[in-house]
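Chain A, query sequence.
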Amino acid sequence: MSDKEQDIDLIVNHPKKALFNLSIPTIISLAFTMIYFIIDGIWVSGVGPNALAAVGFVTPLFTALAGFSNSLGSGANSLISRCIGAEQYENAENSAVHGIMLSVILTIVLTVGLLIILKPMFLMMGAEKVIEETMAYGNIIVGGIFTIFIPIMMSAIFRSQGDIKRATYPLVLAAAINLVLDPIFIYTLGWGVAGAAFATALAAMIASTPMFYWMFIKNDGFLKINMRSYKTNLKIYKEILVVAIPVSLEQFSISFIFVLFNYWISLLSGTVAVAAFTAAWRLVALGNTPVSAIGMSALTVGGVAYGAQNLVNLKTALNYGIKLAMVFSVLIVSLLFIFADPLSWMFSFSQNSSILAPPIADSLRILCFFTLLMPFGVLSCNIFQSMGKGTYSLLIIIVRAIVLEVIFSYLFAFVLGWGLSGIYWGMVVGMAVGSVMGYLFINYYLNKHKGYFKII
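Chain A, predicted structure.
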C-alpha cells in the first residue's frame, strides 16, 4: 500500500487517529498563518497608534476575504471527501479541478469590485481620521487577493485526501518569509503600513510555489489533477457552493459584527481603544487556531464518514474533536490570562505606541475567555459542513454571532452601563451560549436522521 493509499485508509477506518494526525500539522500551519496578523501588528505598532488603528479597520475585510476563500475550500473539501468515502474517485478529481477554477473566477471578480468601492467602504466604517493609512494598507491587501484564494483552495484539496504535509508546510513557510520581510519593507525601505501589506502578499505568493509544483507538475497525489480535461459541470459548482455560500455568509456575518464592535468601541473610547482591541483580538485569534484546525480536520474525517454512510465515525469526528479542542482551549485561555501584560508589550515597544499596553492587557484578560467553549460550536459547524449541510452551520453562526453576541454586548455595554468591558463580556457570553446551543442542535439532527446511515 502506497503512502497516499495509507492516508486514505487512515481517514476511512481510523477516525480518531486520522483526526489527531491531521490536526497537529494544521494547528501549526494555522498558527503560523495567524502570526501574519501578530507580526504585522507588532511591526506596524512601532509606526504609531494611527497605523495600528488603520490595520484594525482593514482587518474585518481581510478576515472576510480569508473566510470566503476558506469557505470555498470547505465546500471543495466536503465534496471531495464525500466522494472519497463513497469510493467515487473520478468525481473527486473532477471536483478538485472545479474548485480551482471557481477560486480563479472569484479572485478576478472580487479584486476588481473591491478596488472600486474600497475607500467609501472604509469611510462608512469610521476610518476618516486614518483614511490615508487605511487605504495604503487596504489597496495592497485587495490587490493580493489571489495570494489568499488560490493557495487556500490547493491546501483544501490536499487536505481532503489526507495529504496534510503538502496542505500545511507552505503556510508555515509564508509566515517565516513574512517575518523577514516586514521590518525591511516597513522601516528599512520606509514604506510604513503599506510595507506590511506588501510583505504579507509577497510572502504568500512565494510560499505557494511548491503547491503549484506538487499539484500541477509533479502531480503524484492520490487524486490526479488535470486542468486540461476540465469541462464545466454546473452540478459540481452547485455542490461546492451549497457548502461554500453558507460558510462564506458565516464569515461575512462575523466580519460585520467586528465592524459594529469597532464602531461601538470607537464611540465609547476612541481610536486608541480600537487599536488595543485590534491587538488583543489578534492574540485571541492566534489562540483560536487549534480549535479551527481541529474543526478543519473534522471536516475531512466527517466528510469521508458521511460519504460512506458511517454514523459511528461521523459522531467520533464530532465528539473526539471537541474533547481534543477543549484541551487546547483550557490551556490557551490560561496562558493568555496569566501572560496578558507581557503579551501586550509586543504591541507597545516603541515610544509612539507605549500608551497601548494597559488597554491591550485589560482587553485580553476578558477576551481570552471567548475561546473557552468555542469547540462545541466550531466542531458542530464543521460536521454540518462535512455533510454538505452548510445552511445549518450558517444558522448556528447567525444565532451565536449576529443575535447572541450583539444582544449581550449591547446589553452589557449600553443598557447596564459596563462600557468597553461590556462589549468584551458580551462577546464571551454570546460565544459560550451559542456554541452549546449548536452542539445540542447537531445531536438532535443526527438522531433524527439515523435512517440515512448504514448499520455498522
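The mean pLDDT is 87. The chain has one domain: 3-452.
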